[in-house]
């Protein structure tokens, strides 16, 4: 059988567990809000 390879994660700490996910969520939220505002202001008959 194959042996499992050792794993050492460098993605740890406050930056990767709190700052990056919150920043990515904020970017997605703002982009979604901007798209909503863009399409909500359009006339329905055009």
Briefly summarize what is shown:
Helices cover 59% and strands 0% of the residues.
List the helices and strands and how they pair.
Blueprint: H1 14-40
Key terms:
0% strand, mainly alpha, single chain, 46 residues, 59% helix, elongated
Outline the structure in words.
The protein has 46 residues and is an all-alpha fold. It has one helix spanning 14-40. The chain starts with 13 loop residues before the first helix and ends in a 6-residue tail after the last helix.
- Radius of gyration using CA atoms only: 21 Å
- Alpha plus pi helix count: 1
Largest sheet: none
Residue share in helix = 55-70%
Secondary-structure content class: mainly alpha
**Poorly predicted runs of 5 or more residues:** none
How much is the average pLDDT?
89
Q: For the record, give the distance between the C-alpha atoms at the N and C termini, rounded to a whole number.
A: 65 Å
Count of individual beta strands = 0
Shape: elongated
Strand content: under 5%
Give the ordered list of helices and strands.
H
């Amino acid at each position: 059988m194959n042996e499992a390879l050792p794993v050492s994660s460098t993605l740890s700490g406050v930056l990767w567990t709190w700052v990056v996910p919150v920043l990515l969520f904020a970017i997605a939220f703002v982009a979604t809000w901007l798209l909503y505002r863009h399409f909500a202001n359009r006339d329905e008959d055009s």
